[in-house]
Records
---
Amino acid sequence: LRRGSGPGDLAGRRVVVSAGGTREPIDPVRFIGNRSSGRQGYALAVTALARGAEVVLVSANTALPDPAGAAVRRVGSTAELRDAMHEESGAADAVVMAAAVADFRPATTTPGKIKKTGGAPAPIALVENPDILLELTRGRAHDGQVVVGFAAETDHVVENGRAKLARKGCDLLVVNQVGDGLAFGTADNQAVVLGADGSSTDIPTGPKEDLADRVWDLVAERLS
Ligand code: CTP
Ligand code: CA
């Protein structure tokens, strides 16, 4: 089933994978977060290691054991993830943004714990976070660096995915259908991988490791 893949086809390649979901602090004990488990990103790291790659895994708020052989950097907020991705991507042949990044963060983090006052609670003002994937594609370290994004869509999956691929400027966009218990926190994943070259690859429902291997097949084809 695994076409073109094999032990060693990523030997000598350095890949950077982000996994998990970022958390934006509201006060010292509270945050805005999301339900990403990090399992797809970890599956990408494990399969890349099995294929011989040198792997940096930037892990945001996951509860998963470090994959043996990966260099793991743990981050919390989007700002921390962004700094780590910019530091690590410079020397990378491929960068995969599998992390679920918070689109917005509180405009300010309250230094002390917010207390009830008896009145109406103060609203939390939000500001938009920087788009890390867009920054990575605009600042590609070298021609030939392959940049991969992930997208979770609830409807019009392919149309939304095509538009997102173009907007982000990535080489490949892995589009998952989410909602109704699909994808987040589950062992299995199903996706269509859209390429900047117009290609479209359907990946049937299966373990996240299988999807990861198919993504690396498509990355390997683009590395030269
Ligand atoms: N992403 C990122 N930085 C952000 C938001 C998203 O790097 N601030 C990356 C994600 O890691 C993913 C890709 O962009 O690889 C697509 O994320 P998605 O949330 O689907 O796209 P958005 O541009 O945030 O659009 P939407 O409004 O649909 O959430
Ligand atoms: Ca988003």
---
Amino acid sequence: YIPLGVLGALGAVGLVLWLSRRRLSLRGELATAVRRREFFLHYQPIIELDTGICVGAESLLRWRRPDGSQVRPDLFIPLAEENGLIEDLTDQVIDMVIADMRDLLVRDRSAHIAINLSACDVSSGRALKVLSARLAGTGIHPQQIWLEATERGFIDIERARTTLAIARRAGHNVAIDDFGVGYSSLQYLQQLPLDALKIDKSFIDAIGTDSATSPVTSHIIDMAKTLGLFTVAEGIETPAQLTYLQARQVEFGQGWLFSKPLPPDAFMAFHQQRREQ
Ligand code: C2E
Ligand code: CA
Ligand code: CA
Ligand code: CA
């Protein structure tokens, strides 16, 4: 006879072991996957909220393993960051954005594609050198590549400031990603050379609810306006959220209400259709 509590504890230990073993094997697999280029991009349309026009897309990384299964980016991106693989992955993202979207960007000068940079990319600044080298001769203007920098893991604000300043001088638009989720304060933001602020989905979810987060959404929008930044709302799912954001003059947004992230061809069709409405 074994008491239930002991069984439960054994179960929990087993689960933790299983999870850490899974993490370990994923870690080994990831290095191979980066070498074998098992990644591709989806593109989520970004919409100008007062016109409904599609102005571009955010590139979002996908990993399909050889057995056909997919791993979610919120699982493998942190792993890549911890294991020194993220900068190689960012290089691949840059290559894929150019390969997928060059024609569209050259045809439509008002279109842009946003690339996510992790804290390591921002800290080292290497991704920017790669980007400018790869863009040379493609006909794509730097203005057509927006950069989304997350503040998660920014250790050295001085280096972040340097990299972001270089990015802006090169002509890119720079947005702070997942705003409000980390430690960002007004003071902190004022120190960074930015064009835009991306409002995290958790704050969009709160719109119209009586959750404690709801008033924060309004403050974030005010803060962006005070700093002279434009705003991009992430994760818009309902017409009520859209109406609220339009009333608050949030310039751009993305979310399932408009479209899920799409393969390159499907995004190009979507963009074509929503270009001049
Ligand atoms: P993120 O940068 O905050 O990207 C937005 C996430 O919200 C995406 O998840 C997108 O698919 C999801 N999303 C957008 N609209 C909606 C909506 O209406 N409803 C719901 N439920 N979700 C929505 P995804 O593609 O799974 O990416 C997760 C995170 O992984 C990203 O969050 C980003 O932090 C990271 N990531 C993705 N691609 C890259 C990349 O190329 N480089 C780096 N460094 N990070 C990336
Ligand atoms: Ca992003
Ligand atoms: Ca985001
Ligand atoms: Ca987010």
---
Amino acid sequence: RPPTQVRNFSIIAHVDHGKSTLADRILERLGAMGERDKRDQTLDTLELERERGITIKSTPVRLSYTRDNGEVYTFNLIDTPGHVDFNYEVSRSLAACEGVLLLVDASQGVEAQTIVNAYLAIDSNLEIVPVINKIDLPAADPEGAAQELEDVIGIPAKDAVFASGKSGLGIPEILEAIVERIPPPPGDPEAPLKALIFDSFYDAYQGVILFVRVLEGTLKPKQPIMLFNSGKTFDVDRVGTFTPGLVVGESLPAGSVGWIAAGIRDIHDAQVGDTITQKDRPTPEPFPGFKPAQPVVFSGLYPTSTEDYRKLRDALEKLKLNDAAFNFEPETSEALGFGFRCGFLGLLHAEIIQERLEREYDLDLIATAPAVVYRVTLTNGDVFETQNPAEFPTRDRITSVEEPYIKLSIMLPEDYVGPVMQLLQERRGSMITMNYVGKRVELLYEVPFAEILYDFHDRLKSISRGYASMDYEQIGYREGDLRKVDIQVNNEVVDALAVIVHEDKAYSLGRKIVDKMAEVIPRQMFPVPVQATIGGKIIARATVKAYRKDVLAKCYGGDISRKKKLLEKQKKGRARMKQIGTVEVPQEAFLAVLSTE
Ligand code: GDP
Ligand code: MG
């Protein structure tokens, strides 16, 4: 089909405003879903996405739309994630589009992520079709939500389409708006090839599969191609489109969104953001690559059994291909042995990566507590950055320490402003501004990133009864009174358990960690002391009590099936444990700092 009859678009919104559900309705309407695969959130293909009900990866799908007047259009729809950790995925998807459907839940109105995503689209020069969604809800206020879009972002309220992904209301209007308002992709199918890699994954049979947006020229099988950044050359084996499964096609002309396989075996050769061109007829200029995502949260990942080290490395390499936003490098810990220091975009991202490693690659892992990157100035004048608390120098060698700060934006109903401001105060935040948007308030704060890392979002949600939403961006480093808290188990310092914390909070944090650890470390034949120290000085102490004789006796008596059950239970619990000296330390102990009291 000529590019004039192609529309490439994404659906963007705050999390839970109904992107995946609306995508389902569109797919259904355009006959892309057979009765057989009819299930909810069709584009959430990862097992994890279905379980958690969130979208992690952007998933493209090609659709055919016939207008009432008989004109036929090809739609390439790219579903996107909404959580702040995955903004990176969103901006990559947007590079493959000319327009977006910007969804707003009619009962919630504009939220923090609505604003961020709208600006991502505006910055990429995309046409925005505002959709006020979930108008079937009794609490829906479609006009109010449309007016908020106008007041907050400047999108005219009269442009909004009212819809419900649940009932299907408004879907025909949305399809028409896509054709009428979103421009067709530019590009000349005869020009030298220029295609953007916006995603990729590794297929055991075909090698690396690249998701591409063709900007100029045409991609076809047998074509010799070159990757601009790596300079590597390949011959295209297959090209195709998404249904959302992969279907083989004949060619991908300018304007298309599709995939190619080119026998690429080394995952390093294919980088997301790179430009593909024709080897013997290169495009004069590559697409300006994406800004590489900067991981901001770091944590060590160690296999519970040492033999799995290589398996973990292979898994990390493959996963990185599917998720360009995280990185890793080898790391050694006295307590945990050989593992990797991994960088993530946020805590949710870290959790998802660990879970995907364990499920998709069948690994048992121990993760150390997530930490931010600190900048340390030493007494000898050297400045260095460390993302690993274990590497933190001793107090006498430090002149100053700086920590990363964020600009935090919170949208909330005015009733909750008081308690939320108090929470921000506890987290060492300082206010920049406060804006009223109707009956709602936008709070802008500067806060140390470490302070919102763990349980901030949960606390914010519970304080505001679920009404507050947040977003943030990094704004650089500020000096702080930071200390390293060491943790000793059975009188030995465990390097992998060290944490960096603000002086004012060191004691309470040390207390929390040792109490939690004493609770989760299994009992031994002897009592095991757990201590938190600063510079060798003990600030908190707890004890893992020894087995009592009669408890042991009970285990050895009794019927056989009960004993078997007990053994099985022990075996299972052991999977995520690490032997440290004579003590077995479970995963929960390494994440004691995350526990909520
Ligand atoms: P996403 O995070 O933006 O992809 O949102 P989902 O599509 O996963 O939807 C979030 C929740 O809202 C789910 O429980 C949906 O069933 C519900 N939902 C989505 N669209 C509608 C709608 O139009 N009306 C109602 N009442 N609920 C909806
Ligand atoms: Mg979704």
---
Amino acid sequence: KTYNVAILGATGAVGQEMLKILNERKFPIKELHLLASKRSAGKKITVNEKEYIVEETTANSFDNIDIVLGAAENDIAKKYLPIAVEKGAIVVDNSSAYRLDKDVPLIIPEVNPQDIKKHHGIIANPNCATIIALVALQPLHAYAKAKRMVVSTYQAVSGAGVKGIMELQQQLAALAHGKEVEIQTFQHQIAYNLIPQIGSFDENGYSSEEMKMQNEGRKILNSPELAVNCTCVRVPILRSHSESIMVEFEQPIDVEKARELLANAKGVKLVDDPKSNQYPMPLDTTDQDLVYVGRIRKDISTQANALSFWCCGDQVRKGAATNAVQIAELLIEEL
Ligand code: 2RA
């Protein structure tokens, strides 16, 4: 069976990656529609030597569409995705518009695939930093049940889309030639800098990105009591997010057991041999779909059942596009 698929927001970093991943994974497509703004209509996107023409998004764009992959910002998602559902499409949405909606399952295929069947037309793709953290955490949580997490993220500029990638590259080039840097996408210069702000701050001093780790983590793990303290930092790295994670578990779990579980976990590559300088790094995780996990050690600051580890994953692929396509693959298994 083949399917009529539309990508909403096809010209953004995630939308273009979704097109690449659909081709790479040979998703059974009958018709493919690349939907974007009026300004982008007519643009040509070439993937694997195949050329696609971008169409302007209208309410009629979703006629006879089976699956919509949403890669647009929240306002566009809210405007068009309900129309797509009304016309009979099933939507996998990467925006944050519906992630915490009680009627919308929030899915990481390696963590909670069983929740997909709860959908009422829309399935939400979690935030990239949440996906990377939970793919790494899942095997440990299944064995010893996580109760508290302290997470620090080191997030690539691709999280802010094509404009984030361009801004870093342009600032580095400008500085290399002694020129002034332009600051448009991030709050401050990102080249040779770290910015401890992604999104807006709440009354507790936490950013919207930091609260996603708690709120999405609780929903995906079905652990409403999960305690999370997250700090999200923008770093001058192109595509992979890195995360330092401390987890306190209900049950005992030692480092050897954790390594054994991770070595056999879906979507994970164990890279943990510090004495040989082997640990996850963003340059190694870029342009592939596994979450690399390493630096696994007992948390020496407490008597509790706690481990610390470090993980890296490609924010555009597993953090967004690949996760969405994997959800669509699970969907068509059910259709
Ligand atoms: C970021 N996770 O990294 C957010 C949105 N992709 O900017």
